[in-house]
Design goal:
23% strand; 24 strands; 17 helices; alpha/beta; 476 residues; binds iron/sulfur cluster; 39% helix; globular; 3-stranded antiparallel beta sheet
């Protein structure tokens, strides 16, 4: 395995150390939240959520909100998928769902009356474009009735699009409906790989969607790829990445396929013998990083790359990058209100999750309650650790002095156990530290989850009790 130092920006680098990755890669959370969603309990319910919103009112907080809308439906299943989705061709299901979703939005809108300003909206799924033009129009009008949008230049309004489900006209309509960021699911251009994962997506269809997004004036166009899928080889990955670079999107995400067949039954449909070896997967990752860096993309963190002038890269340079349930974000201060089946909100000091099945989701709304079924109230210790994990994930460094100024702790005493573990990682070359700073090294960046896991008190406790859930993906 080779060691490559790859300059990607005058001040930004990442180093691929295959040997170290092979040695340290393990199962671990992606830290879209801390504590992670598997710590939520059903002791937290609707009334706790109401209380969290009441506290926000009492504090007089006036930060703009983020709004997430979950559309769970898909036409066909992609075998690798671990999302919460419902596979159906029966469009009536979407009409029923929309009725309930609008009810939930109205209830949330009333709760947030007086501070319902939105600067960030994200439609995820499932397949948000499963909805027809008319349904999307109706839904967007409804959202605007209950929430006030910042104008187009200031707000970040994004939608995940499956290119198979749209025409160029539809892309222009989405732009008119208010979306200004678009994220295209591609995964791999190779027809053999597409067949193996049951996602046949002609290359021309993807490129046509990308061109239409640019013509329609989307400000940031993002492409999602996955490495580690069946039938993928370093050669085929090279061809895919070449085509993606030629298409010139603003952001590229390259996710590691999380093979968790004990959790996701559909993953058992893929042949084990078609899976690339760990060595091949690492070679694919090294290749993608090298090619993207040569093409001028900045490494944002985890699986994300962006052009240097994309707002994610700018936010990172300014220390304003944030991480939430949708991944990296530029809106650090926002409370997140999430609507739809299984959606997770982050309001004040709480996380709350909606019912995971449609029946349960509908029943609760029929009872006149928000469909919150589980959640978590953060302790001060959680808040402190969340701050540390956020800084490390987003900036690759932590100012110990700033932390001690913001929180009533002495870092060395409070995190004595963690420091011992960090020293081990320091010896391995993942980070450097002194009394004032922890800095992640270039080769530590790809293993950032390993570093964050040191600060995850819940995970460490579970490991001590040998009760760690088997639901995490590999860290690289
Ligand atoms: S990857 Fe996207 S389109 Fe495929 S099943 Fe999952 S949510 Fe649906």
């Amino acid at each position: 395995m080779t060691v490559q130092t790859i300059p990607i920006h005058p001040v930004q680098q990442v180093e691929f150390d295959g040997g170290l990755i092979q040695r340290l890669s393990q199962s671990g959370p992606r830290y879209t939240s801390y504590p992670t969603a598997d710590r939520f309990t059903d002791e937290f319910g609707y009334r706790d959520y109401l209380q969290a919103v009441t506290h926000l009112h009492a504090r007089g907080t006036r930060h703009p909100l983020s709004l997430y809308i979950h559309i769970p439906f898909c036409d066909t299943v992609c075998y690798y998928c671990g999302c919460n989705k419902i596979i159906t061709k029966n469009r009536d299901k979407a009409a029923t769902y929309l009725g309930y979703l609008k009810r939930e939005l109205e209830m949330q809108g009333k709760l947030f009356a007086g501070f319902n300003h939105i600067e960030q909206l994200h439609f995820g799924g499932g397949t948000p474009t499963y909805l027809s033009d008319a349904q999307m129009d109706d839904l967007m009008q409804h959202i605007r009735r209950w929430f006030q949008f910042a104008d187009d230049a200031k707000g970040e309004y994004s939608i995940e699009v499956d290119p198979r489900s749209v025409t160029p006209e539809r892309i222009h309509t989405l732009r008119r409906q208010g979306f200004n960021r678009i994220s295209l699911g591609v995964q791999d251009f190779d027809p053999e790989v597409q067949k193996a994962v049951n996602r046949m997506q002609p290359e021309e269809k993807t490129l046509e969607t990308l061109r239409a997004s640019r013509e329609a004036g989307f400000r940031s166009i993002s492409v999602d790829l996955i490495y580690g899928l069946p039938k993928q080889t370093v050669m085929s990955m090279n061809q895919t990445i070449t085509k993606v670079i030629a298409a010139n999107p603003d952001r590229i995400a390259i996710y590691h396929y999380a093979h968790l067949p004990h959790l996701f039954k559909m993953q058992r449909r893929m042949n084990d013998e078609d899976m690339p070896s760990s060595d091949a997967k690492l070679d694919m990752l090294a290749l993608c990083i090298r090619r993207l860096n040569e093409a001028g993309y900045v490494y944002i963190g985890m699986d994300h790359f962006a052009k240097p002038d994309d707002e994610l890269a700018v936010a990172q340079r300014q220390g304003l990058l944030h991480r939430n349930f949708q991944g990296y974000s530029t809106h650090a201060e926002s409370d997140l209100v999430a609507c739809g089946v299984s959606a997770i909100s982050s309001v004040g000091m709480c996380y709350s999750q909606n019912a995971k099945t449609l029946d349960d989701y509908y029943d609760r709304l029929d009872q006149g309650e928000l469909p919150v079924v589980r959640g978590y109230e953060l302790t001060m210790d959680d808040v402190l650790r969340r701050f540390i994990i956020q800084r490390l994930m987003c900036n690759f460094e932590l100012s110990i002095r700033s932390l001690e100024e913001a929180y009533p702790i002495k870092f060395g005493a409070y995190f004595a156990l963690e420091l011992e573990q960090l020293q081990e990682l320091q010896q391995l070359g993942l980070l450097t530290m002194d009394d004032e700073w922890i800095e992640v090294t270039l080769k530590g960046r790809l293993l950032i989850r390993n570093i964050c896991m040191v600060f995850d008190r819940h995970l460490q406790q579970a490991r001590r009790l040998q009760s760690e859930p088997l639901r995490y993906s590999r860290t690289v």
